[in-house]
Specification:
The complex is a heterodimer of chains A (about 230) and B (about 1100). Chain A is an alpha/beta fold and about 230 residues long. Chain A contains seven helices and eleven strands. In chain A, the strands form two sheets. Chain A has a seven-stranded mixed sheet. In chain A, strands 2-1-4-5 form a four-stranded antiparallel sheet, with helices on one face. In chain A, α4 packs antiparallel against α5 and α5 packs parallel to α6. Chain A is globular. Chain A starts with a strand and ends with a strand. In chain B, the strands form four sheets. In chain B, strands 2-3-11-5-10-6 form a six-stranded mixed β-barrel, surrounded by four helices. In chain B, strands 15-16-25-18-24-21 form a six-stranded mixed beta barrel. Chain B has a two-stranded antiparallel ribbon with strand order 19-20. The chains are: A alpha/beta (about 230), B alpha+beta (about 1100). Chains A and B meet through α2 and α3 of A and α19, α34 and α38 of B. Chain A: It holds the Pfam family ABC_tran. Chain A: It comes from Wansuia hejianensis. Chain A: GO terms for molecular function: ATP binding; ATP hydrolysis activity; transmembrane transporter activity.
Chain lengths: ~230, ~1100
């Protein structure tokens, strides 16, 4: 399968001198198209930092990131914003929906911000798959946690991004709802042949991924392909 | 760890907020201290200047006697008694009086040259007296001082009554009585008897009267009255007493019957002293020249010395006067002017003592009979009855009265500053109100208190706002402190300590900062504004200011402190936004979610926050524009009094018409004085009789006549003057006014000819005097127009001069409002009794002694002229002095035209001495010589001593009077400037504090937006889009605030203008009036500049905080939610 996202020698440090903290140490990673990746690690292992760098939300101290062979951090701010708008979808732990907008407005926001026409067919498919068709005119604070996360996933999916990055998407949900959301993400990956990178500290959740990347103290310690249970 | 350490470390962790609060409290102290010191300094300067000018004494008893002096000296509350005994008035030095050390101390005299006299033959002269008397003396020179003390003469009436009785007993009958018989006979001659009986009766009566007459005819054929002779005798006995020569100048009159013995002894014994003067002569050495003070002190009409001698020097005079053998003058009192000072009571001294020192009963002044005393006149009555003598005096009074009346308005052209009513204090015991005016209610004092109050409120609000936002942000930390066991009292203690730290910075930086700023302002004004401000700190006010600053901090902290202790340990104090539930629709139309729309939705949900920041913006710009407007309004008094009236800086006046050659020479001389910008000269002729066909029906003049007290009517209407009864109607029915003579080449002519509102003036005919310009103010009938209003003569005379009398009477009675103001041209009525093109008659009296010397000026000069143009109102800028006084029917003619009516005004002083001219004007020819007026303008607003001296010198050299309006204009200007500075400080302080509040609100709002910004960033919203958005929001907020503040200010101005207007104008008219007249000097450029500055600042305040946030990565912004 083609590599869609490639991180080369990515490092991220915070602070200076004695207070210097190395969140990521010379990390190299390849994300393949259509594959559901899970990044796993303990709290403070650097998994969220890695995810944010992969999504262009945060800049590394050094190293390169290629999205479909385009060097992400060589882009200007505006181009980077447009890249995020068009080619990356995010799902956050705290949903990050805009409270003043309805569900449908939240979902379509990335497309509208990009002044693109909405692909009605794709939109309908997404909302029906996520089961939020009845809630489109609701406001986020009128929804349950699971429903909110579904809306967040729908928002990430609707602009047909090259990759979806999900940061602990079940962190704010109860176990049952969390399981449902993970199942949904797994189904979506298959349904839409969507590349997904999910960060979690829960091994059980990681089991649902096609590939599991383990981070220990800012370093990738293992990459396991669940389909053949092969350690890379 | 101690509570104060927690507070201190907490402050370090919130650097921006801490800095903002420190800035607010420091600024608050800086501005409070600055405004207080500035106010104290201006007040102190004013009061010091007042003491220098008006003396330091708190109260004075003027024209007191020894008994009063003794009593005052024994008063326990009085610490210093300055005594000046007034010896009398001298020929060269004015009033001569003594002084003591205390008087010098409390008088705060300033010596122009030399020293105070110490010996009995030394004298110190007042500078203005030297100029007045043309003395060219210097220190060290000798001067012969001759003090003349007029003595009251005996009772002339009683003397004449006794004499008349004596003559009658000797068989002399008065001419008056004989004339009565002659008149009776004449009447009998004129009778036409209708019957024989009647004819007989008349004849018998005639015979009887004839016999009576024969009886009075003496042997030699003289009538008995013709036997009365009179002799005048003058003698001047003198005596040398020490170094004083006392001369008694006695004028005797002696009436006797022809043949009786007459010699000086007889006259001295039996004659009447009609005039007696005691002259005290002594030679003095001038030791000093004193700066002028006598015209400045608050002494009313009482005389104070123009020349000071020592008490020993004074004693040489009193010893001579009271010890002379020439006569007993002990009935004459040389009064004491007693000046008092009290360390304890200060200006309240008068209040505490005035009931103990009532006014002295003034002796009725001896009638000035000597001026009109004519023995020939009284001789006619001698031999008559007592009633005849009484009648003689009554007739004399009746003759004198009109002459006195005419002299009553013999005022100079110059008018007092505002033409306001002036009260004359005639009390002996008086307060020094000029040196100690009541300042507690002064504008500056009120303004300073207002500043403190406003800065107090603004600071408290700013502290409140910043602290409250901070408390909300610190809620987690506060909860943490509570959760680990901090009590409410400890939380309060932490915040209180934070307050103390802020206060420390505020006081340590703000107070010295305020001191430094005030030093810069005071010295800056002295250097650049040519002011002479004294740096002064008023401790009580300063303490009040510091207290206000401290209180504002802690009051501002109260609510945030309550908020802090009420933060719950669990849950949240904020509520989720409320949405309006949208109904689901089948074919719902989805709104396109542009970035603008996303922001609009956000705004709709956060209206409250948005309106708070908008409100603060609005308050800020309102403060700024109000400050400009209030500063502009501070100049209203200056603008209305000086600028709108075109008031000149100096007015110089000659009491006669100056010759054209001299006028030219003077124009050149004055023009060469440094700083003189322009000189305009004109001539004035008073007592001009104006007549026109329609004058009888002239409503304004008729009402003026109705309102005038009866004694003053003859000053304006000839029909009240019996002297003109026999004259043609254009004299007997004339209205009395003035004529102004201006040159056709002058700026005045340019101004007046441009101001003509009806008709057109022919330049050549104007020049020859055939055409004139008539000044007739517009009028607006008032509410009392048909009611009877009565004014007393004294009230009118004390409140008005001849020019503003009509305006004053109409205003006071509410009959009319008069105006020369163009702004009212569409609303006021224009007088139309006289129209342009009409012919009017102008006449003047010859002012001669007619008919063999016993009647006064009834001959006249007449001229028919055409009214070329009428001025009803002046264009903006007015025309001094008319714009200030609004006299009616003033004639403006060429100088030639004016001189034709006043032929004696052509020659200048000629061979006449100024005192002779003065005497002629005072007694015989008040109007014959006209007057000459120069308006002098200079190039700066500040009073200049050198310029004053140069102009004073020109005036003195030519015997003119000079009036310095520049000083009062400068005072008005500086008062306005002080107010502007205080208002400016207030405005700047309030605006800066409002800006800090706004900035803090925006920062806080932006921080709350961080998460949302992060989400949008994650969705691909670019930095440019964010920047544009915040710039747009800033521009809309700033723009809207600008528009609303300006509209609000305009509305307030419109409403106040409408309510303060005398007339009801249309809305359009009112707006036009506001822009053309009320705002005619408004600093639009400053207004515009500050509006632009505010707009840019608002945009920056919205943009800059957002810039800091959007430059962060989306992750950092999203994470902020959990901070």
């Amino acid at each position: 399968m083609a590599v869609i996202l490639k991180a080369v020698d990515i490092e991220k440090t915070y602070g200076k001198g004695q207070l210097k903290v190395e969140a990521l140490k010379s990390t190299n990673l390849e994300i393949e198209e259509g594959v559901f990746h899970a990044i796993i690690g303990k709290s403070g292992s650097g998994k969220s930092t890695l995810l944010h760098i992969l999504g262009g939300l945060d800049k590394p101290t050094c190293g390169k990131l290629y999205l479909e062979n385009e060097s992400v951090f060589d882009l200007k701010d505006k181009e980077l914003a447009i890249l995020r708008r068009r080619r990356i979808g995010f799902v956050f732990q705290s949903f990050n929906l805009l409270q003043e907008h309805t569900v449908v407005e939240n979902i379509l926001m990335p497309i509208h911000l990009d002044s693109r026409e909405v692909d009605e067919e794709h939109f309908n498919k997404v909302i029906s798959t996520l089961g939020i068709g009845e809630k489109l005119n609701y406001y986020p604070d009128e929804l349950s946690g699971g429903e909110r996360q579904r809306v967040a996933i729908a928002r990430a999916l609707v602009s047909k991004p090259a990759i979806i990055l999900a940061d602990e998407p079940t962190g704010n949900l109860d176990e049952k709802t969390g399981d449902e959301v993970i199942k949904l993400i797994k189904d979506l990956a298959k349904e839409f042949n969507q590349t997904i990178v999910l960060v979690t500290h829960d091994l059980e959740i990681a089991q649902n991924a096609d590939r599991v990347i383990t981070l220990i103290d800012g370093e990738i310690s293992s990459v396991i392909d669940n389909s053949d249970s092969q350690k890379i | 760890m101690k509570i104060k350490d927690i507070a201190k470390k907490g402050l370090k962790g919130r650097k921006r907020d801490t800095l903002l609060i420190k800035l607010v409290i420091t600024l608050s102290f800086v501005f409070i201290i600055t405004s207080i010191i500035f106010q104290s300094s201006t007040e102190k300067t004013k009061s010091e200047q007042a003491l220098d000018l008006y003396g330091q004494w708190h109260a004075a008893y003027l024209e007191g006697n020894e008994e009063i002096l003794k009593k005052l000296k024994s008063e326990k509350d009085i610490d210093k008694v300055g005594v000046s005994r007034v010896i009398g008035e001298s020929d060269k030095c004015g009033v001569v009086g003594t002084f003591n050390k205390e008087l010098i101390d409390m008088g705060k005299f300033s010596l122009y040259k030399g020293n105070y006299p110490t010996k009995d033959n030394e004298i110190m002269l007042e500078l203005n007296q030297m100029s007045k008397m043309n003395l060219d003396l210097d220190v060290g020179q000798k001067i012969q001082v001759a003090i003349t003390i007029p003595r009251t003469t005996g009772d002339l009436k009683q003397y004449l009554k006794d004499l008349s009785k004596e003559f009658r007993n000797k068989g002399v009958i008065s001419a008056y009585e004989i004339n009565k018989i002659w008149n009776e006979l004449r009447k009998l001659e004129e009778l036409k008897p209708e019957s024989e009986k009647e004819k007989k009766e008349i004849e018998e009566k005639k015979i009887e009267l004839g016999k009576k007459l024969e009886k009075y005819q003496g042997d030699r054929g003289y009538w008995s009255y013709q036997q009365i002779r009179y002799n005048n005798h003058h003698e001047t006995p003198f005596e040398q007493i020490g170094d004083v020569v006392l001369i008694s100048s006695n004028n005797y009159t002696y009436f006797y019957i022809d043949g009786e013995k007459v010699n000086p002894e007889v006259i001295r014994q039996d004659g009447f002293i009609e005039e007696q003067k005691i002259i005290l002569k002594k030679e003095f050495i001038v030791t000093g020249i004193l700066q002028t003070y006598s015209d400045k002190w608050d002494v009313g009409d009482y005389k104070v010395p123009n020349a000071f001698i020592t008490e020993e020097g004074g004693k040489t005079f009193t010893d001579a006067f009271y010890g002379t053998k020439i006569g007993d003058f002990s009935d004459h009192e040389m009064g004491y002017n007693i000046f008092l000072s009290s360390d304890l009571l200060k200006e309240n001294l008068y209040k505490n003592l005035h009931t103990k020192y009532p006014d002295r009963t003034k002796e009725i002044e001896q009638d000035t009979i000597s001026k009109t005393y004519d023995p020939w006149y009284f001789a006619h009555y001698l031999g008559g009855t007592e009633q005849d003598i009484d009648k003689a005096f009554k007739e004399l009074d009746a003759w004198k009265e009109p002459r006195n009346k005419e002299g009553e308005d013999n005022s100079l052209e110059v008018i007092d500053e505002l033409g306001k009513e002036m009260e004359i204090n005639l009390s002996n015991f008086r307060k020094n109100t000029l040196a100690y005016p009541d300042t507690t209610g002064s504008t500056e004092y009120v303004l300073t208190l207002t500043i403190i109050a406003i800065i107090f409120i603004a600071t408290a609000l700013a502290i409140f706002q910043i602290f409250l936002t901070q408390m909300k942000r610190r809620s987690r930390k506060l909860v943490l402190l509570k959760s680990i066991g901090a009590t409410k009292a400890q939380i309060l203690n932490i915040i209180f300590h934070e307050g103390l730290y802020f206060l420390r910075t505020g006081i340590l930086i703000g107070v010295p900062g305020g001191l430094i700023l005030s030093v810069i302002i005071v010295h800056g004004m002295n250097i650049f504004g040519k002011r002479d401000l004294q740096y002064h700190i008023e401790p009580s006010l300063l303490l009040l200011g510091i207290l206000a600053g401290i209180l504002s901090l802690f009051i501002g902290m109260v609510v945030p402190m309550i908020f802090a202790i009420k933060i719950p340990l669990v849950g949240t104090m904020s509520k989720p936004p409320k949405h309006t539930k949208k109904k689901l629709k089948e074919n719902r139309k989805l709104h396109y979610q542009s970035f603008n729309r996303i922001n609009w939705e956000y705004f709709k949900l956060n209206k409250g926050k948005t309106f708070i920041s908008f409100g603060i913006s609005l308050i800020t710009i309102t403060i700024i524009v109000s400050t400009i407007f209030l500063s502009y309004s501070s100049f209203n008094n200056y603008k209305d009094t000086v600028m709108a009236n075109s008031r000149p800086d100096y007015v110089m006046e000659a009491i006669y018409g100056e010759s054209s050659r001299q006028i030219e020479a003077l124009e050149e001389e004055i023009g060469e004085i440094q700083g003189v910008e322009s000189v305009e000269v004109y001539k004035v002729g008073k007592q001009l009789f104006l007549w026109h066909n329609n004058l009888k029906e002239d409503k304004i003049l008729n009402d003026f006549e109705k309102l005038l007290p009866k004694e003053l009517k003859r000053n304006y209407f000839n029909k009240y003057n019996t002297s003109y009864e026999e004259f043609d109607k254009y004299i007997s029915d004339a209205y009395i006014t003035k004529v102004y003579g201006i040159s056709k080449d002058s700026k005045n002519f340019e101004k007046y000819s441009k101001a003509i509102t009806e008709g057109k003036i022919d330049l050549d005919k104007f020049n020859t005097g055939e055409e004139i310009i008539l000044l007739a103010p517009m009028y607006l009938p008032g509410e009392n127009i048909n009611k009877d209003v009565v004014f007393g003569k004294r009230e009118v005379l004390s409140s008005t001069n001849e020019d503003n009398r009509m305006d004053w009477l109409f205003n006071k009675s509410k009959y009319y409002k008069l105006s020369h103001d163009e702004r009212y041209s569409n609303y006021y009525k224009k007088q139309n009794s006289i129209k342009s093109g009409d012919t009017i008659y102008l006449s003047t009296t010859r002012e001669g002694i007619m008919g063999g010397g016993d009647s006064y000026g009834t001959d006249s000069l007449n001229k028919k002229v055409k009214v070329g143009g009428i001025i009803h109102y002046f264009p903006k800028g007015g025309a001094w002095p008319f714009s200030n006084t609004k006299p009616n029917y003033i004639v403006i003619s060429s100088i030639t035209g004016m001189e034709k009516l006043y032929p004696a005004s052509i020659y200048g002083l000629g061979k006449t001495e100024i005192n002779e001219m003065q005497l002629m004007i005072d007694t015989l020819h008040p109007y014959k010589f006209g007057r000459t007026i120069w308006h002098i303008n200079t190039d700066s607003k500040t009073s200049d001593v050198v310029q004053d001296a140069s102009l004073l010198s020109v005036a003195h050299n030519n015997n003119y009077t000079i009036y310095n309006y520049k000083e009062s204009s400068s005072r008005l200007y500086h008062e306005a400037f002080n107010n502007v500075l205080i208002i400016g400080l207030l405005g700047i302080t309030a605006a800066i504090i409002a800006c800090i509040i706004l900035y803090n609100i925006l920062i806080s709002k932006m921080e709350q937006d961080k998460n949302r910004i992060g989400i949008l960033q994650a969705m691909g919203v670019t930095k440019e889009e964010f920047s544009k958005h915040y710039i747009k929001v800033g521009a809309i907020t700033g723009g809207l605030a600008l528009i609303i503040a300006n509209i609000g200010l305009a509305l307030v101005f419109l409403l106040t203008s409408i309510t303060s207007m005398d007339i009801s104008m249309s809305l359009g008219g009112t707006i036009k009036d506001i822009f053309l007249y009320k705002l005619w000097l408004y600093p639009w450029s400053i207004h515009l500049l500050l509006c632009i500055l505010f707009f840019v600042l608002t945009v920056l305040m919205y943009y800059l905080p957002s810039k800091n946030i959007i430059k962060q990565s989306p992750v950092e912004n999203i994470r902020s939610l959990s901070r």
